[in-house]
Amino acid sequence: MSRSSLRGPFRTGRAPAVALAALLLWAASPAGPEAAFAQQRNVTWQEVLDVAAEYHPPGCPPTLTGATCQERQAFDLRLEILKLLEEGKSRQEIRQILVSKYGQDILAAPPPKGFGVLVWAAPVAAVAFGLSVFFLMVRRRRPSPPAGG
After folding, report:
1. Confidence of residue 138 (pLDDT cuts 50, 70, 90)
2. Residue among 94, 98, 100, 28 at smallest CA distance from 57
């Protein structure tokens, strides 16, 4: 291939200048080179497991979360969370994405509103009731007076 058969900037030997100009435009653009790398960040597996612990993958036993379940669905959910974290998504953004994709059933703990308040309040109320009954029984139990006094 001869130099005369090339087209565009390569024909006249301007290729380095054009490449340099393109590089300078890319570096000076508002997106800049840091934007290409800002989207992807290093994520530890522990971060993925911490986020996955907040979700219940479909098909996993009800007592297991995305961090502890060994089913294929949990593995897929952890990979999805890994990708979202690498993209720089926050926990709240990940929550919104997963709830919109899978519905409220994906949440390991129900939100503390509506019927979910009952789920959060029932154990607290049961413990408070049990403690109050215990203290009432202890207060009523008085030592008996000494005999023959």
Report:
1. confident
2. 98
